[in-house]
Design a protein that fits this description.
single chain, 498 residues, mainly alpha, Glycosyltransferase, three-stranded antiparallel beta sheet, 4% strand, disordered N terminus, Endoglucanase, glycosidase, Glyco_hydro_9, cellulose degradation, EC 3.2.1.4
């Protein structure tokens, strides 16, 4: 049963009482299968390019059909990263990697139709990523001028802002974007291996090419003056490019079984910061995910030369378990993992994914994690993940599902142009850049339901204002949803887990 919204004075009292308590554990029942379906459907609302006949998000239409023309190349397709109309290659590649990892790790648990839908979502991105590396010694890293785009409130179908193409040519570096593209293509090759082996081989071959570019010309793409004004401050490389090199190599090792990538991980770990033990995972920082991924090599392949990666993965898991003496992650009073900054649910979904992926590896090898004062089992890691999932789906002080279209109460005014403006199907007349402002400023709910979108999330005190202008809380992103696909697949297959 979903709770109605509590009075403000009650929320203030509840926050005060719980501020010094450990995270709450809930046992509400959720339709994880329904949430899984909707989390995948969301990606259809983010599509750029020519939409297919079986497009289910029917209020969307074709957009970005001239992308790439300034370079005389086809850069149509791919995804808009969030509520705007820009195609940023860095987060798109990470989104793709996480969708593919969801299939690799949890695909066998998905209903056949949802596995098929997930592969379609992956291919919408990989087809585009292949275009970005189709020219020798060049990678296209972005399409669209975000500074101009963000001054407009325009449907993607109407956009008349510059579709500036941002390209990095060798020897200028783009190790971060190229490394993540290599990871995305390599992981996706594994996801397609059984259903489309020819396409899988194409993806793997191009993953090798992308990694060669990343490793040969080392550096951050946003350090390039020609790129900086477009990428920053939106998707600058804030945390360095080194983790993407290791991440790309780790996925190429998984996909190809080539010992050259094993040697790369062994020989470059220290110089590229693998021992930094940074407890974060997201579109810009791959350290925690890298350690979980490589730990599979250690535990299942007896690759003890990579033991330091496993030690770092263990250390990360210990920070997430409240019973551990080394636990130091911050939680909201309602139990949500919290890191300062916007779009906080990206941390909750990526960390939940890592908890479940590591639990699988530990279970297959009959291992636990030694956290000093306590041994943490795979079951315990799954409990931590379920707390996050249930919070997102509605077990929180507001009784609000942060997934649009799931449950009776969810955000109505997400920061998303296409969702908040009338559909071109209902309002075929052109809506110019500034003409959309009346819809942005409206207090009315969005007319088009972006089913499955997960909002940026609440504040540290569990509060959430359902306000279009508060983009840090109300804007959905592809990289919030992508890891949640795998997480929901696990709990949909194990609905009685508690």
């Amino acid at each position: 049963m979903k709770l109605s919204s509590p009075p403000l004075h009650f929320l203030i009292l509840l926050t005060t009482l719980l501020s010094k308590c450990p995270p709450l554990v809930h046992s509400s029942y959720h339709e994880y299968g329904e949430a899984l379906s909707k989390s995948i459907l969301f990606f259809e609302g983010q599509r750029s390019g020519v939409l297919p006949q079986d497009q289910r998000m029917s209020w969307r239409a074709n957009s970005g059909l001239s992308d790439g023309w300034t370079y005389n190349t086809d850069l149509t397709g791919g995804y808009y990263d969030a509520g705007d109309n820009i195609k940023f290659g860095f987060p798109m590649a990470f989104t793709t990697t996480m969708l593919a990892w969801s299939v690799i790790e949890f695909g066998e648990l998905m209903p056949p139709n949802e596995l098929r839908n997930t592969l379609v979502a992956i291919r919408w991105s990989t087809d585009y990523l292949l275009k970005t590396i189709s020219q020798p010694n060049r990678i296209f890293v972005q399409v669209g001028d975000p500074n101009v785009d963000h001054s407009c409130w325009e449907r993607p179908e109407d956009m008349d802002t510059p579709r500036t193409v941002y390209a990095v040519d060798a020897p200028n570096p783009a190790s971060d974007v190229a490394g993540e593209t290599a990871a995305a293509l390599a992981a996706s090759s594994m996801a397609f291996r059984s259903s489309d082996p020819g396409y899988a081989e194409t993806l793997l071959r191009n993953a090798v090419k992308a990694f060669q570019f990343a490793d040969s010309y080392r550096g951050a793409y946003s350090d390039n003056s020609n790129i900086r004004d477009g990428a920053c401050p939106f998707y600058c490389d804030f945390d360095g490019y080194q983790d993407e090199l290791l991440w790309g190599a780790a996925w190429l090792r998984r996909a190809s079984s080539d010992d050259a990538y094993l040697s790369y991980l062994e020989n470059n770990g220290k110089t590229l910061g693998a021992d930094d033990n940074i407890n974060e995972f997201g579109w810009d920082n791959k350290h925690a995910g890298l350690n979980v991924l490589v730990s599979k090599e250690v535990l299942e392949g007896n690759m003890y030369t990579l033991e330091s990666y496993k030690a770092s993965a263990d250390s990360f898991m210990c920070t997430l378990v409240p019973e551990s003496s080394t636990s130091h992650i911050e939680y909201t009073p309602g139990g949500l993992i919290y890191k300062p900054g916007g779009s906080n649910l990206q941390h909750a979904t990526t960390i939940s994914f890592l908890l479940l992926a590591y639990a699988n590896t530990l279970e297959r090898t009959s291992q636990t994690v030694n956290c000093g004062n306590v041994n943490v089992s795979p079951y315990s890691l799954r409990v931590q993940a379920k707390r996050q999932v249930d919070y997102i789906l509605g077990d929180n002080p507001l009784g609000l599902s942060y997934m649009v279209g799931y449950s009776a109460r969810y955000p109505q005014r997400i920061h998303h142009r296409g969702s908040s403006l009338p559909s071109i199907k209902d309002h075929p007349e052109f809506i110019a850049c500034k003409e959309g402002s009346i819809y942005f400023n409206s207090s009315s709910p969005n007319p088009n339901v972006l089913v499955g979108a997960i909002a940026g999330g609440p504040s540290v005190d569990d509060s959430y204002d359902d306000a279009r202008e508060d983009f840090r809380k109300s804007e959905p992103t592809t990289y919030i949803n992508a890891p949640f696909v795998g997480v929901l697949a696990y709990f949909a297959a194990n609905p009685n887990f508690s």
